[in-house]
């Protein structure tokens, strides 16, 4: 996500959410060292975007939306796939996100991608008294071969 993407991102945001992020909120978040903004493009237009935070042991998805004309075309699934590909067996093994209690479409979308609601966050949002579900994706354990860092093994 770059500065010139902002107007299209804001347009998608306002069409997607009743309580949309402002440009100031996007810019403030993206100025943080550990926040990443990504866009998905189709025919030189932004089809969707996501913003996530890189934390020590997990990724935290802060915002994700797909342009109304591109919904049900697999754009959101591809963006989440990209996020899942950033998980590692040794360090970051999970993705967390919050979903409004009333956003049934998002809850279903994430459940279909193997996210689980693990907690109810009471009065979570600043703009309303609405609750949120904390949802988690955990990287699957792999059986068999586990890569070993040869240098770390030799140093111990």
Automatic annotation (TrEMBL):
<dbReference type="InterPro" id="IPR000182">
    <property type="entry name" value="GNAT_dom"/>
</dbReference>
<feature type="domain" description="N-acetyltransferase">
    <location>
        <begin position="1"/>
        <end position="140"/>
    </location>
</feature>
<dbReference type="InterPro" id="IPR006464">
    <property type="entry name" value="AcTrfase_RimI/Ard1"/>
</dbReference>
<dbReference type="Pfam" id="PF00583">
    <property type="entry name" value="Acetyltransf_1"/>
</dbReference>
<dbReference type="InterPro" id="IPR050832">
    <property type="entry name" value="Bact_Acetyltransf"/>
</dbReference>
<keyword id="KW-0012">Acyltransferase</keyword>
<keyword id="KW-0808">Transferase</keyword>
<dbReference type="GO" id="GO:0008999">
    <property type="term" value="F:protein-N-terminal-alanine acetyltransferase activity"/>
</dbReference>
<dbReference type="InterPro" id="IPR016181">
    <property type="entry name" value="Acyl_CoA_acyltransferase"/>
</dbReference>
<protein>
    <submittedName>
        <fullName>Ribosomal-protein-alanine N-acetyltransferase</fullName>
        <ecNumber>2.3.1.267</ecNumber>
    </submittedName>
</protein>
């Amino acid at each position: 996500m770059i500065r010139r993407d902002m107007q299209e991102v804001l347009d998608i945001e306002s069409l997607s959410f009743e309580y949309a992020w402002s440009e100031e909120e996007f810019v403030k978040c993206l100025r943080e060292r550990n926040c990443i903004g990504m866009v998905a493009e189709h025919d030189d237009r932004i089809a969707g975007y996501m913003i996530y935070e890189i934390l020590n042991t997990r990724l935290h998805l802060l915002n994700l939306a797909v342009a109304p004309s591109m919904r049900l075309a697999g754009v959101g699934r591809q963006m989440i796939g990209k996020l899942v590909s950033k998980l590692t067996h040794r360090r970051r093994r999970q993705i967390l996100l919050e979903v409004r209690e009333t956003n049934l479409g998002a809850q279903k979308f994430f459940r279909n991608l193997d996210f689980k609601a693990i907690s109810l966050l009471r009065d979570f949002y600043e703009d309303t008294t609405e609750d949120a579900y904390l949802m988690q994706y955990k990287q699957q354990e792999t059986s068999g071969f586990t890569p070993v860092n040869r240098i770390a093994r030799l140093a111990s």
